[in-house]
């Protein structure tokens, strides 16, 4: 890895240079050492990282070969379906970028860095609760196998911020392969249209170099936008199959590489309800779990409008069709894997069985994660006591007539699997059905303890979520307990 200033090659109207405003008396809550090692930044100690995350960048600047130039990026977007105009990094700064031997970029982005020219009425700071949730969820998603932002660490401080009540400000050093959002293209198209072609070319060079023709200095724009659309489709298919609800899928919250960004009012599905809304502010259910594929398409349609002078209406429609097809194919593939089958073309009935299982889970409000994991016991209950217990607990909740329906489904399911080896089925089920996800009540417990100055639960959950597909001795019964009906709540956008 080497430090570079890749984004600074763009027109300087797209960003503002600004230094973070340091937090007072910071305390390090947690540090992601495996990530630090992968980035080759393990020559910095805990105290140095605490200083960096709190906005004192000298220690990081000392290991960079060039001057550090933190920037706040400008972008625009549609929020809840309405054009919001200019937005931008209101409390985050891109403080550095790294490039590996394959030319892939990694951004270091300081969240909670203080006011920027794009802060509008905000104070540029971050709450402890939202910072802990983002730290844990980014890690959890990556360990589930879903490309997402991650974080080097987080701090709390004595700097006071005012939200519902006065509280201490926190900060997070986020890591992502890309902070360029769909909304960046909307901003350039709206506010600096003379720069749009140059912007697209430089973005292609950075993130999709195979689509940039250096000889003619041109970009295969139809291929570029189609690739972005397809990566978005793959991301959303992955979300659906772990029960993840992003909560705030505005065009400024989706990036162009298909990695999950901006963990705000997110949640992992517990008792299955496709119309579940996890965002307290989403009164109409625009960003419900069920709507995520359609909203991804809607966002891409708005993104494509920025390219109106560069691609035809027919090309735009083909991009959206490709998105639909990619999402459906990926979703079906992954649904079959959650049922223990790696090749659904050899099992045409398996998708129908999967849809029937989801309908059954919805009708009887069964836990999404636990029900899929319990299929292991259905295939081989003798050698998998944990899954056998999950299955027994799930069936015990069902009325008698529902148990009969379950037995009918189970009989058809096992019949469909009869020609596949049991060991292959079990292996596939184990690889695609996690035991642990970040349930809201787990995050809440860690946050409550952190507000009391105890960060042990944050660190325990980080360790637990590091290997979500295998039983872990540090787990508690509460980590896999589905929320009771009266515990299911939406999450505030306040951060």
UniProtKB/TrEMBL annotation:
Keywords: ATP-binding, Magnesium, Manganese, Metal-binding, Nucleotide-binding, Nucleotidyltransferase, Transferase. It catalyses: L-histidyl-[protein] + UTP = N(tele)-(5'-uridylyl)-L-histidyl-[protein] + diphosphate; L-threonyl-[protein] + ATP = 3-O-(5'-adenylyl)-L-threonyl-[protein] + diphosphate; L-tyrosyl-[protein] + ATP = O-(5'-adenylyl)-L-tyrosyl-[protein] + diphosphate; L-tyrosyl-[protein] + UTP = O-(5'-uridylyl)-L-tyrosyl-[protein] + diphosphate. Mg(2+) binds at residues 253, 262. Its EC number is 2.7.7.-, 2.7.7.108. ATP binds at residues 88, 90-91, 111, 123-124, 174, 181, 262. The keyword Plastid does not apply. Its cofactor is Mg(2+); Mn(2+). One of its GO terms (molecular function) is magnesium ion binding. InterPro entries: SelO. The keyword Secreted does not apply. The active site is at residue 252. PANTHER family: PROTEIN ADENYLYLTRANSFERASE SELO, MITOCHONDRIAL. Nucleotidyltransferase involved in the post-translational modification of proteins. It can catalyze the addition of adenosine monophosphate (AMP) or uridine monophosphate (UMP) to a protein, resulting in modifications known as AMPylation and UMPylation. Belongs to the SELO family. This is Protein nucleotidyltransferase YdiU. It comes from Moraxella cuniculi DSM 21768.
């Amino acid at each position: 890895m080497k430090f570079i200033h890749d984004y600074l090659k763009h027109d300087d109207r797209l960003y503002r240079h600004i230094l973070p405003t340091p937090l007072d008396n910071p305390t390090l809550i947690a540090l992601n050492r495996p990530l630090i090692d992968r980035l080759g930044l393990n020559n910095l100690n805990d105290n140095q990282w605490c200083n960096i995350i709190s906005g004192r960048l000298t220690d990081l600047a000392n290991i960079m070969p060039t001057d550090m130039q933190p920037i706040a990026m400008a972008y625009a977007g549609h929020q809840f379906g309405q054009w919001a105009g200019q937005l931008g990094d209101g409390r985050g700064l891109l403080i550095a970028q790294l490039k590996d031997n394959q030319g892939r970029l990694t951004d270091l982005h300081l969240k909670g860095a203080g006011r920027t020219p794009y802060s509008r009425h905000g104070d540029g700071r971050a709450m402890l609760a939202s910072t802990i949730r983002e730290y844990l969820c980014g890690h959890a998603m990556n360990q589930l196998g879903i490309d997402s932002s991650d974080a080097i660490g987080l701090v709390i401080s004595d700097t006071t911020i005012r939200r519902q009540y006065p509280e201490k400000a926190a900060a997070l050093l986020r890591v992502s392969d890309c902070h360029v959002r769909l909304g960046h293209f909307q901003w350039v198209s709206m506010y600096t249209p003379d720069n749009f072609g140059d912007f697209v070319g430089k973005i292609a060079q950075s993130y999709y170099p195979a689509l940039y023709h250096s000889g003619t200095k041109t970009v295969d724009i139809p291929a570029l936008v189609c690739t972005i659309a397809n990566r978005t489709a793959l991301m959303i298919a992955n979300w659906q199959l772990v029960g993840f609800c992003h909560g705030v899928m505005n065009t400024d919250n989706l990036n162009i590489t298909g990695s999950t960004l901006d963990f705000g009012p997110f949640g992992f599905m517990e008792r299955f309800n496709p119309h579940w809304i996890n965002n307290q502010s989403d009164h109409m259910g625009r960003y419900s779990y069920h709507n995520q594929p359609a909203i991804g398409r809607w966002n891409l349609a708005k993104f494509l409008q920025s390219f109106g002078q560069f691609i035809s209406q027919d090309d735009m429609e083909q991009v959206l069709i490709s998105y639909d097809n990619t999402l459906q194919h990926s979703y079906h593939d992954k649904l079959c894997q959650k049922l223990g089958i790696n090749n659904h073309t050899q099992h045409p009935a398996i998708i129908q069985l999967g849809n029937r299982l989801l309908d059954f889970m919805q009708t009887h409000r069964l836990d999404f994660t636990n029900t899929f994991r319990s299929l292991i016991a259905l295939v081989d209950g003798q050698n998998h006591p944990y899954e056998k217990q999950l299955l027994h607990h799930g069936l015990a909740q069902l009325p008698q007539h529902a148990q009969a329906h379950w037995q009918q489904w189970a009989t058809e399911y096992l019949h469909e699997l009869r020609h596949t080896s049991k060991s292959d089925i079990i292996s596939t089920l184990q690889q695609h059905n996690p035991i642990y996800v970040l349930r809201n009540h787990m995050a809440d417990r860690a946050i409550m303890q952190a507000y009391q100055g105890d960060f042990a639960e944050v660190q325990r959950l980080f360790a637990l979520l590091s290997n979500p597909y295998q039983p872990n001795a540090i787990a508690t019964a509460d980590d896999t307990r589905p929320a009771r009906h009266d515990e299911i709540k939406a999450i505030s956008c306040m951060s």
